[in-house]
Amino acid sequence: MTGLVAFPDFHKRIPAHVAATLRGEGLVGLAIGDVDGLKSHVERVNADDPDCYGHLAGNKVMTRLGMVTREWFHEQLWRSGCVATFGGDEVIVAAALDDAVDFYRSILQLSDRLAGALPVPVSFALAFASADNLPTERSGGWQCLLMDRLLTTVDRCLFLHKAARLACGGQGGTSVITELPLPGQRAALRNRRTLLPLPTAAEELHVLAHPAGPEALGMLLLPCSGPAEPSGSPLRITFPDGSTRTTRPISLHGQAAVRHEAAHFAGPNLPLTLRPMREGSSH
Fold first, then answer.
1. How far apart are the first and last CA of the chain?
2. Dist. CA 131–CA 19, nearest whole Å
3. Please, what is the Cα angle at 274 between 243 and 69, to 5 degrees?
4. Which end of the chain is more exposed for a tag (fewer CB within 10 A), N or C?
């Protein structure tokens, strides 16, 4: 229906390509897009249009999603990649990259195109993998296990942000990023190519943050590069409960981090929205 690769074929063939790219010190981008409110859309059409069986409306949404995604995918200049279905109304994008920022901007572009083409929004989450994410133990079938771990991390990031957004009455269509967990104790040696820049000007960045660990208590790590100065430009941070505060990020081993209060934190990961603030002027 979508014209995209079916997930069983994706899961059979792509993990070996991802593992080979990582072993060759390459960078892999992975994104999952989830159609928001497809069931509600189908039920609404069923109730409002006596001449249309509701599930046909769902089919039209997924067919249109596939067409727009295919057109977008063929415009990309990645060295290699794949776009596939996932679950009932999700899509996966996997690509071998030279630049993480380019992949992020491409996913934003896809999100915008789908927003203009579909009657329902599509939410995206994404992450970047490097050789650091390769497991130390590589017994039979380890490529598929690695792929499952990467997909699971991105999918959880997507649903955490969707839950936080719905709790505040927000809409879909946002793109969020997470950093993939590293095997063992390699957090201090994270490959900086997997980190995005902190937002600037009018940018808004949705991220999944996590505690820095015992070496930096009271700090949250962001999936972004740390500032070059002792502290970066001020950020306005929105928490899942809708509360906000302004803080300046610092750099921990080259990765951006911000201070957090225990009252704001529940669980191992925290969905945040980052917005840059203007510096105070002499006026």
1. 59
2. 9
3. 120
4. C
Distance between CA 115 and CA 60 in Å, rounded?
15
**Residue-wise pLDDT tens digits, 61-105:** 889 999 999 999 999 999 899 999 988 789 999 999 988 999 999
Rounded Cα gap, residues 220 and 155, in angstroms = 21
SS3 56: helix
- How many Cβ atoms sit within 10 Å of the Cβ of residue 173? 19
Q: Is 241 helix (H, G, I), strand (E, B) or coil?
A: coil
For residue 52, the model assigns a pLDDT of 64
* List of residues 6+ apart from 260 with CB closer than 8 A: 209, 211, 218, 219, 220, 270
Enter the tokens of residue 230: 């002792």
Alpha helices by DSSP H, the chain: 7-23, 38-48, 54-74, 100-117, 142-167
Beta-bridged to residue 85, according to DSSP, are 91
Cα separation, 141 vs 238, in Å, equals: 41
The neighbouring-strand residues paired with 30 are 94, 127
Mind listing the pLDDT tens digit for each residue in 245-274? Answer: 999 999 988 899 998 865 556 567 889 999
Provide the 10 A C-beta neighbour count for residue 132.
Answer: 17
Tell how strand 219-225 and strand 235-238 pair up.
Answer: unpaired
**CA gap 177, 28 in Å, rounded:** 14
Q: How far from the centroid of its chain's Cα atoms is residue 82's Cα?
A: 17
Q: Which amino acid, one-letter code, is at 109? A: Q
For the chain, what is the radius of gyration of the CA atoms?
A: 20
Round to whole Å and give the CA distance between 197 and 256.
9
| 228-265 per-residue burial string, b: 16 or more CB within 10 A, e: under 16 | eeeebebbebbbbeeeeeebebbbbeebbbbebeeeeb
